[in-house]
Amino acid sequence: MRIFNRLIVFFYTAIFTIIGAALIVIALHLNGTIDLSLLFDYVIEYPNLYVIVGLSGILLILVSLSLASISFKRFQKEKTIGYSTNSGQVIVSLSAIEDYIRRMSIHLPDVKELRSDVIVTRRGIEIESRVSLWSTSSIPEVTQKIQSIVKTQVQDLLTGIDKPIMVNVHVTKIAQRDQAKGKKEKEELQFMG
Predict the structure, then answer these.
(1) What count of Cα atoms within 13 Å lies in the side-chain half-sphere of residue 36?
(2) Are residue 172 and residue 152 in the same domain, yes or no?
(3) What is the three-class DSSP state of 85?
(4) What range defines the domain where residue 162 resides?
């Protein structure tokens, strides 16, 4: 799959580089071996259009190169984390950790929704959590609680991995809870507990 993704990025970059170079050729009035006479004449007819076309070409080349760079960095990120035990190798998928964190949010009454991205870097394991809170909750207290619980639970889950865990929380939404729904949820929690 990685080879396929790299090929897509390569062809994408090549196509946009060719288009950008063609626009620069038109802007610089270099109508030599390539017969683009109709397009070339149209660009020359309008006074400032060649400047716009040239800048568009440069912009396309820069965008394609930056997207290729970002894509290759993203492909190189590890999708798993592993460690060795006496019995053998243990490999844990980062998506399994993300799902585990999402399921933990059920036990947090002030959290409506919790989604996380787990990234393994040289500095350690970074967890980027996006959280939707209920309007009745205190943001500093809840976010600190989320950071503490997520860090502790993931450390317990990944016993044997020595990398430090950093949890960043981004509050993306503050939702209004319906009074009737809130009472119903409290009754359900009391009934279950």
Answers:
(1) 18
(2) yes
(3) coil
(4) 81-192
Share of residues in the chain with pLDDT > 90 (%): 12
On whether both 100 and 181 belong to a single domain, the answer is yes
First to last CA, the chain: 46
Which candidate, 106, 103, 102, 159, places its Cα nearest to that of 127?
102
In Å, how far are 65, 102, 146, 150, 171 from 106, measured between CA atoms?
42, 8, 12, 13, 17
Residue 179 pairs in a beta bridge with none
pTM value > 0.85 = no
| CA-based max dimension of the chain | 82
Which of 19, 45, 76 is at the close of a domain? 76
Q: How confident is the model at residue 107 (pLDDT cuts 50, 70, 90)?
A: confident
Long-range contacts at 185-193 (CB < 8 A, ≥ 24 apart): 189/109
C-beta of residue 116 within 8 angstroms of C-beta of residue 129: yes
CA angle 8, 52, 61 (to 5 degrees): 25
pLDDT at 32 over 50: yes
Last residue within a domain, chosen from 28, 60, 76: 76
Tokens 């929380």, residue?
169
- Distance (Å, whole) CA 47 – CA 172: 47
Enter the tokens of residue 8.
């897509």
Residues 85 and 113 in one domain: yes
